[in-house]
Amino acid sequence: MLSSLISFENTSGKSNPQSAKSRWTHRKILSSETKVMQTEQQHNMFRMGRLLEGNTNAMKNNNALGHDEQNVMQTISQADDGLKRKRLLYGTKHVPEMANWPPLSALIDQYGGIRDDVDVSGILDFAIVGFAKTGTTTLLKHLSGMTDSLPKEHCDLVVNDGGKLLKDLYEDHGRRVKQAKKRGEEIEDRLRGIKCPQDLSSDNSMLNYARHFPSTKLIVGIRHPVLWFESLYNFRVSNVPWKAMLPTSELTKGCIVGSQGVCAWRASFHDFLSRLGKTPLTSKSEKDLLQLGLEPVKTKLGPVFLYEISQLSDSGDPGGVRSAQFRKDLKRFLGLKQEIPPFPFIDTSGRFDFLAPVKRQVDQNKINICDANHDAIRGVLMEKARLASEWIRDYFLQSEEVIVSSRQHFELIIDSWRFDPCTLKK
To answer: Contacts for 371-374 with beta carbons within 8 Å, 24 or more apart?
Structure first.
């Protein structure tokens, strides 16, 4: 129990959080200089799933994923003297505690992060950790009706803000308690989950899961890299029409300035999956299939439910047999009590489609990945697709901690990655 590991802070004080002194303290905290990243920089980090160089110690040259690691989680200077903690906890004194959990203040260190001497692994039951444009939003919305999932994306772990994630979980619980009381109902103890499609490609997120949430069940969606790239590129065109996208020939490597988080590097799905530590990574034959040289976590992480985006739809599934099996397998994996209903139609329209002039411009700027002027990026993506197909089938799926639905059909999907979808269309 947590109570045996920590000293509870007194939360029974009767001071009014809206008192003059409290308001003055809040203004002082807000005006204090803290090492906060610029909004645009932070937005780009969420998109790419990694921090800009210089904002944190990267995992690459650090043994921080072991049990005896140095604390590389702090991005706020010690000179801040607990101001980030005060700011984080401001106004949370009256947030209801979760069953069998201490006050939020007992879990947060002076820098606003998660304390090293507490075990919070049981507070996050599952996380949808990858990848963008694989139906993760649809999955989260669908599961939110039967779980206490946080709405929208919560990529706090990408920027080492585990304290904020805990705060959001506590405050979400508080809102649910308040709503249940209004209805005269007992609060139901349900699974808690989050979604951040950038987590798997983020050094910091992997460190955070290894350090604080090693038992969290992980859900990962994948998609043929060629089709994934086209979808993400056109998503940016549709939803950020005021920013011009770079030509695809300039996006064959990492996510450079102006890429808006769209690049071939992010399509290295199997490389990012390899860091979960579910395969031996000892043979030359396995290592030759990996391109990025990422180190696996040294702390065992929770089981993985891997799916391909087509499994969310009944399309091509006579009678919906495989789709029904998929929902049963996901229910079993998560430990849900109720059945998961069929997934709704996935709406791919842009935010500004209702504006005819904008939509016309957007449609002109969208790409058809099969056009000849995209041969360069498609060649790079096909190489990744072939490597991923072999590694996932021969190594990742061999782990007892990796679950897929309708395995034989799933392997057929993965095998199809060896072929260019543009060639198959002809």
So the answer is: 373/247, 373/248, 373/249, 374/248, 374/249
Low-confidence spans in the chain with pLDDT less than 70: 1-81, 91-99, 346-348, 425-426
pTM of this structure: 0.81
Q: How high is the pLDDT of residue 348?
A: 66
Matching residue, tokens 């002027």: 373
Beta carbons of 311 and 219 less than 8 angstroms apart: no
Residues contacting residue 288 through CB under 8 Å, at least 6 positions apart: none
Q: How far apart are CA 285 and CA 354, in angstroms?
A: 51
* Residue 232 pLDDT: 97
Taking each helix axis from N to C end, the angle separating 375-394 and 407-415, rounded to the nearest 10 degrees, works out to 150
Phi, psi of 217 (to 5 degrees): -75, 135
Please give the structure tokens belonging to residue 43. Answer: 């937005």
Question: Which H or E element spans position 321?
Answer: helix 321-334
Give me the pLDDT at residue 319, please: 75
Q: How distant, in Å, are the alpha carbons of 237, 240, 257, 377, 379 from that of 247?
A: 12, 16, 13, 10, 15
**pLDDT score at 346:** 64
Cβ density class 156-188: b for 16+ within 10 Å, e for less: bbbbbbbbbbbbbbbbbbbeeeeeeeeeeeebe
Query: CA-CA distance, 24 to 15, in Å (whole number)?
Result: 14
Q: In whole angstroms, how far apart are CA 117 and each of 10, 218, 417? A: 18, 24, 45
